[in-house]
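Q: I'm writing up a methods section and want to include an example of the input and output format. Could you take the sequence below and give the corresponding predicted structure tokens, formatted cleanly so I can copy it straight into the document?
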Amino acid sequence: MRYDLTPFYRTAIGFDRLAKLLNESQRSENEISYPPYNIELVDENAYKIVMAVAGFQQDELEIETEHQALRVTGRKAKKEQETTFLHRGIATRDFEHKFQLADHVKVTGANLENGLLTIALLREVPEALKPRKIQIGSSAEASTTLIEQKAAA
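A: Here is the clean output for your methods example:
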């Protein structure tokens, strides 16, 4: 099922990124996902993506981030000699996979081991955006503090 988000674009300002995400997620559901991958929650602010990239060497893989998007690309080097397969079960075709990253999520590292590419991600919320507790005092204290702040400015 596909949704037409055109009316949403006409009436909502600043939500075009969200609408684009919805369109892209609908499109990607219908496409075959190669190579297979897992997205794991390591802890509250840490994630990792594990991709099965059997047959790829480190220099044939590229990881790039740009504008809250993570792109993983695999380009298989051409062999000088063609191989004749009696059965080919290991796919080594070129690929490009894109992931949308949430605000404040950054790639902290990547590792290739035993045919698995592991990409570590961390959400680092700035202090100004973190929740903070406000102490409740008497109204006299609050008004005195406001007066002192205005005088200092």
